[in-house]
Structures are given as structure tokens and as C-alpha cells.
Amino acid sequence: MAKTPEMPAEMPPNWGVYFAVADTDATVAEAQELGGALFMGPTDIEPGRFAVLADNVGAVFNVLQLKA
User: Fold this and answer.
1) Are 67 and 48 in contact (CB under 8 A)?
2) pLDDT band of 4, cuts 50, 70, 90
3) What are the pLDDT digits (tens) for 31-60?
4) pTM of whole model > 0.85?
5) What is the dihedral of CA 61, 43, 12, 7, to 10 degrees?
6) Separation of alpha carbons 25 and 59, rounded Å
7) What are the two backbone dihedrals, phi and then psi, of residue 3, each rounded to the nearest 5 degrees?
8) Peptide bond into 8 cis (omega under 30)
9) Residues 6+ positions from 43 with CB-CB distance below 8 Å
């Protein structure tokens, strides 16, 4: 995925893992109940509904509910 204009020029290339989930909103709520943090979303994008989360020790990951 190409860097977007709002990303700083000095931001290095990076990667992220996506987990397919049945319900993004429910997954976000459960993650927060368990001590996780929400960084972005839930947001609708072309493939489905996604969010960016971190677990209770700061590891960042994405969840994606694919469109039917």
C-alpha cells in the first residue's frame, strides 16, 4: 500500500498483520474490555470494515470483517 500524503516523509516502510473477524465492532469492544487500545476505526473500506488495535502490552494489529 502506498504512503498517503498525511504520512510523514520520514516514515519508513512497515508492515501490519490483519486478522479476519466475524464482527469488527464486537471485536473492538472485546479488545478494549480486555485492556487493548483502539488507534483507528472501526472504519468501512473497500474490502470490508476494519480497525487498528493494540494489545495490552502495545503490540499493534488490524482486524477486518470482509464484505459478504
Assistant:
1) yes
2) confident
3) 999 999 999 999 999 999 999 999 999 999
4) no
5) -150
6) 19
7) -65, 140
8) no
9) 49, 50, 51
Closest to 39 measured CA to CA, from 24, 53, 60 = 53
Cell of 31: 479488545
Backbone phi, then psi, for 31, in 5-degree steps?
A: -60, -45
* CA separation for the pair 65, 22 (Å, rounded): 6
**Which DSSP string corresponds to 48-59?**
EEEEEEE-TT--
**CB-based contacts of 13, cutoff 8 Å, min separation 6:** none
Domains and CATH numbers, the chain: 18-66 (3.10.180.10)
CB 34 within 8 A of CB 51: no
